[in-house]
C-alpha cells in the first residue's frame, strides 16, 4: 500500500504534529496509526515500532531546534540575545509534549531499553557541536568552545526538566537569565 505525499516523511510530519497536539500517553500503535490516517503495519514498516516512531519524532524536533538556534545565531548578531530568544522558544508550553517525550525516551534509553537506545546516538555530541561552532566564531579555542557548549546544554536540559516537573516558568526563566549573564561574562571582549 503506497502512502501519498512522501510515505515515511509524511507520516513523520503527522506524528510530530500529533505529539504536539496530544502528547503520547499510553496510546497503542493502532490508536496512533488511526489518528495519523494510516495503519499500524505502515508505522512498523517505516519505523520498526512505536518506540522507533517516537525516537524519530524526537530526532525531528531536535533537528528543528538546532535549525532555529542556527537561524537565531545568524540573525541576531548578539549571542546573548540569541540565547535568550532560543530559551524563550524552548520553554514555550507548545513544546512541552515533545520535551516530555524526549525526557521519557532519554530515561528509558539510559535504563537500557533496546527500543529507546538509538536515541542516545549523538544526543549530546550533535548539540555540543552545534553550540560550539558559534563560540569558536566568537574567538573561543575549540576545546573551550566544546566545554562551554556542553555546560550550556546541561543547564538548558536541566532547566527544561525542572520546568516540566514544577511548571515554575518564572523560576526557571530567572535561573536561565542568571546563567545567561554568567555566560555573557565569559565572552571575549567586544562580544558582550
From TrEMBL:
Keywords: DNA-binding, Transcription, Transcription regulation. The keyword Transmembrane helix does not apply. The keyword DNA-binding applies. Residues 5-65 form the HTH tetR-type domain. InterPro entries: Homeodomain-like_sf (IPR009057), HTH-type_TetR-like_transc_reg (IPR050109), HTH_TetR (IPR001647). Signal peptide: none annotated. One of its GO terms (molecular function) is transcription cis-regulatory region binding. Pfam families: TetR_N (PF00440). Residues 28-47 bind DNA. This is AcrR family transcriptional regulator. It comes from Jiangella mangrovi. The lineage of its organism: Bacteria, Bacillati, Actinomycetota, Actinomycetes, Jiangellales.
Amino acid at each position: 500500500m503506497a502512502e501519498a505525499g512522501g510515505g515515511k516523511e509524511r507520516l513523520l510530519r503527522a506524528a510530530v504534529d500529533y505529539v504536539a497536539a496530544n502528547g503520547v500517553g499510553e496510546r497503542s500503535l493502532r490508536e496512533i496509526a488511526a489518528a495519523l490516517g494510516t495503519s499500524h503495519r505502515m508505522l512498523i514498516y517505516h519505523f520498526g515500532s512505536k518506540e522507533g516512531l517516537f525516537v524519530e519524532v524526537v530526532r525531528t524536533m531536535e533537528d528543528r531546534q538546532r535549525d532555529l538556534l542556527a537561524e537565531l545565531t545568524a540573525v541576531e548578531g548578539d549571542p546573548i540575545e540569541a540565547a535568550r530568544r532560543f530559551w524563550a522558544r524552548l520553554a514555550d508550553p507548545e513544546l512541552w509534549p515533545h520535551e516530555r517525550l524526549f525526557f521519557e525516551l532519554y530515561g528509558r534509553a539510559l535504563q537500557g531499553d533496546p527500543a529507546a537506545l538509538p536515541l542516545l546516538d549523538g544526543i549530546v555530541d550533535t548539540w555540543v557541536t552545534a553550540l560550539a561552532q558559534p563560540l569558536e566564531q566568537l574567538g573561543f579555542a575549540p576545546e573551550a568552545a566544546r566545554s562551554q557548549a556542553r555546560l550550556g546544554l546541561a543547564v538548558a536540559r536541566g532547566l527544561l526538566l525542572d520546568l516540566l516537573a514544577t511548571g515554575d516558568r518564572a523560576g526557571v526563566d530567572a535561573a536561565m537569565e542568571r546563567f545567561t549573564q554568567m555566560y555573557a561574562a565569559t565572552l571575549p571582549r567586544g562580544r558582550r
